[in-house]
Design a protein that fits this description.
By secondary structure, the chain is of the alpha+beta class. The chain folds into three domains: 85 residues, Rossmann fold; 61 residues, ATP-grasp fold, A domain (Dna Ligase, domain 1, 2-Layer Sandwich), CATH 3.30.1490; 181 residues, ATP-grasp fold, B domain (D-amino Acid Aminotransferase, Chain A, domain 1, 2-Layer Sandwich). The strands form three sheets. Strands 9, 10, 11, 12, 13, 14, 15, 16 and 17 form a nine-stranded antiparallel sheet that branches. The protein starts with a strand and ends with a helix. Bound molecules: adenosine monophosphate. The site of adenosine monophosphate has 13 residues, from strand 14.
Length: 362
């Protein structure tokens, strides 16, 4: 069997590990938690993501390594890359970890972005607001996720409280985008530069956390979104699955951020695409040919946040496929999802409504 090491042992590592055995692949992951949910189906090394001895242990065992989320230190990926193939590349991870680097890359590549400016002081915030205008969103440059580390500024009176709350670390101010929808495009790139793209996902958030992702086959924005993602992947000399989140406003696309990994908005691909994003990520990092990304009928994904409804109720919905990550229930935590498949958009909408109704129960 081939041996793949994964930094991180959360649900993304778990779903990669579930895709691994058919490819003749054994997985070992590195995670500081004793209850990492990838541990139900693969072996873990319990240590911090930056622990040099643990990284070396993983490198000695594995033939290829990857990571499952972007708060892994880029230096850990560099350390591994000195010894064995490690994908996606550390440089792409470093860019995705810093919203300012990300936005500069988008702009340099001619990709549309909301106006933005770096902010390092309260005075700098005032200057940035003069430049970008209000309303605007102030964000930490690093370590923000699911809407954390952000403040919306609507009037001049909002500046000081937002600085008090977020200041002290490097920040970025972005113009507020009055978007008509949020979408993501997921692509996968091989070591020799071949790329495949999934259909766009149309994404709805609740409390800053992804709630619903709907596969939009034949979306009018597909080609433009794909072209943006291709430019970014080529600039980063990327290998593996790469996700680009975009806003659509007045028929235009504005890039928000990249995720150098498999992505929550692509979980529908497990049952809703010819080849899942997890399998294609593994194929890419292993230097195997990519699988087709065509959708299989209509599909969508509803996240389970905080708790997973009873399996009996979820699976009573026609076309439903349950994914319970076996994580401890906790408010605001992603603990599972359901993929819904259907033969028509109308049937899909009914099934999404049925899944959403379960979130209200209990
Ligand atoms: P992010 O962490 O950048 O993905 O932001 C989390 C959520 O906040 C996004 O999914 C949007 O709903 C919202 N958001 C982020 N940036 C902006 C912006 N510049 N304008 C409007 N809404 C935003």
């Amino acid at each position: 069997m081939k041996r793949l090491g994964i930094i991180g042992g959360g649900q993304l590592a778990r779903m990669m590990a579930l895709a691994a055995p058919p490819l003749g692949l054994e997985v070992r992951f590195l995670d500081p938690s004793s209850s990492a949910c990838a541990g139900d189906i693969s072996t873990g090394i319990r240590a911090g993501y930056g622990d040099p001895e643990a990284l070396d242990e993983l490198a000695d065992w594995a033939e290829v390594v990857t990571f499952e989320f972007e708060n892994v230190p880029a230096a850990s990926v560099e350390r591994l890359a000195a010894k064995l193939p490690a994908y996606p590349p550390a440089g792409a991870l470093g860019t995705a970890q810093d919203r300012l680097r990300e936005k500069n890359l988008f702009r340099d590549l001619g990709i549309g972005v909301a106006p933005f400016a770096a902010v390092d002081s309260l005075e700098g915030l005032r200057l940035a607001v003069a430049d970008v205008g209000l309303p605007a969103v102030l964000k930490t440059r690093t370590e923000g996720y699911d809407g954390k580390g952000q403040a919306v500024l609507r009037t001049a009176a909002d500046l000081e409280p937002a600085w008090e709350r977020l200041g002290g670390v490097p920040l970025i101010l972005e113009g507020f985008v009055n978007y008509s929808r949020e979408i993501s495009i997921i692509g996968v790139r091989t070591r020799d530069g071949a790329m495949c793209f999934y259909p766009i996902s149309e994404n709805t958030h609740r409390d800053g956390i992804l709630h619903l992702a709907v596969c939009r086959a034949s979306d009018p924005m597909q080609e433009e979104a794909q072209a943006c993602l291709r430019k970014i992947a080529e600039a980063l000399d990327y290998v593996g699955v790469l996700t680009l989140e975009l806003f659509e406003m007045d028929g235009q696309l504005l890039a928000n951020e990249i995720a150098p990994r498999v992505h929550n908005s692509g979980h529908w691909t497990i049952e809703g695409a010819e080849t899942s994003q997890f399998e294609n990520h593994l194929r890419a990092v292993l230097d195997l040919p990519l699988g087709a990304t065509d959708p299989v009928g209509e599909s969508a994904m509803v996240n389970f946040i905080g708790r997973v409804p009873a399996a009996e109720a979820v699976l009573a919905i026609p076309g439903a496929h349950l994914h319970d990550y076996q994580k401890e229930a906790r408010t605001g935590r992603k603990v599972g999802h359901v993929t819904l498949r259907a033969g028509s958009p109308e049937a899909l909408a009914e099934r999404i409504a049925a899944a959403e109704a379960l979130l209200q129960d209990g």
